[in-house]
Specification:
The chain is an all-alpha fold. 66% of the residues lie in helices and 0% in strands.
């Protein structure tokens, strides 16, 4: 999903809106938009895009961490599946950081708190950060790990 018209990965919503103005059937667009919103809110946005064979923006790899349940995090930590594609590299990076999140949760960190205080803000920052579309999985991984470290250090008693 792109948020800035003209930037790589711009929002399909923006394109839809233009299409609606050009006469696209709005009824066909609403279920798509509802499915995208639901997937975003429950942390399955990457899987929705993958299922449609659409490109996945960098920020979306944070989605399951920021919005998923404990079970979703556990599934993400299980790792990459499929062949050696760029998606597999991203899934491997996500699996690594999901494993770190699992470790923190096993030490008593609240999933809701870490999502609210670290992961959702990071996801929003990545959505609005210019140039993030060109990041590698390693750059994303380091950003997520930094957010988790910052969360841990700010919550020490």
């Amino acid at each position: 999903m792109r948020w800035f018209p003209g930037e790589p990965g711009a929002c399909r919503w923006w394109h839809r809106r233009r299409g609606v103005a050009a006469g696209t059937n709005v009824r066909e667009e609403v279920p798509d938009l509802v499915a995208e919103c639901e997937a975003f809110l429950v942390g399955s946005y990457v899987e929705l895009l993958d299922g449609r064979a659409e490109p996945v923006p960098v920020w979306a790899w944070t989605n399951v961490l920021a919005h998923g349940s404990r079970e979703d995090i556990d599934r993400a930590a299980m790792g990459a599946q499929g062949g050696w594609t760029s998606s597999r590299r991203w899934r491997s990076a996500r699996a690594f950081v999901a494993g770190e999140l699992q470790d923190a949760l096993s030490r008593g960190v609240s999933l809701t708190d870490v999502q609210r205080d670290a992961l959702v803000p990071l996801e929003l920052e990545l959505v609005s950060l210019r140039g993030v579309w060109a990041w590698t999985p390693q750059q994303w991984l380091e950003a997520v790990r930094a957010a988790l470290r910052s969360y841990r250090s700010s919550n020490r008693t």
